[in-house]
Amino acid sequence: MRTPNWTPSLSQVTGKKTVFEEKVSAKGTTYTAEVIPAWELIVIGTPTEKKDAEGNINGYSYQVYDASQDLGGFAITAPKRVEVKGMTKLIFKEVRGGALSKRATGWFKADSVEVIKK
Q: How many CA atoms lie within 13 A of 100 on its CB side?
């Protein structure tokens, strides 16, 4: 017998095709994650620094919009800063994410980000 699943998958939330990949956490634990291999998004504004508890920069947060799905109002964290002007198309690679406890929003993190070459 199946039980109801109240947590949608990454593909259900984003409307994008996903794959499952083995990842290794910062603590060295191996886990399986649902990822979007490459996601083209429009960045709105300038990326902001994300800092750890000691104040060290550990990534950059990008406010983004997915024109193909009309999906917006969310951010993706990536390890490097890409200089953008206005609304710029970027490609985020190996994107994973999930729900946040007691909030209607979620989190997204990419392994890399780069400007889409025309």
A: 7
Residue 80: closest CA among 96, 51, 64, 58: 58
Tell which residue, 10, 23, 109, has the closest CA to residue 60. 109
Distance of CA 67 to the CA centre of its chain: 16
Give the position of tokens 């490097």: 80
What pLDDT band is residue 12 in, cutting at 50, 70 and 90? very high
Query: pLDDT tens across 79-117, in order?
Result: 999 988 888 999 999 999 998 887 778 899 999 999 988
How many whole angstroms separate alpha carbon 104 and alpha carbon 70? 18
Phi/psi of residue 8, each to 5°? -70, 155
Instruction: Give Cα 35 distance to the centre of its chain.
Output: 9
Give CA–CA dist 59/52, Å, rounded: 9
Q: Which residue has the tokens 């198309």?
A: 89
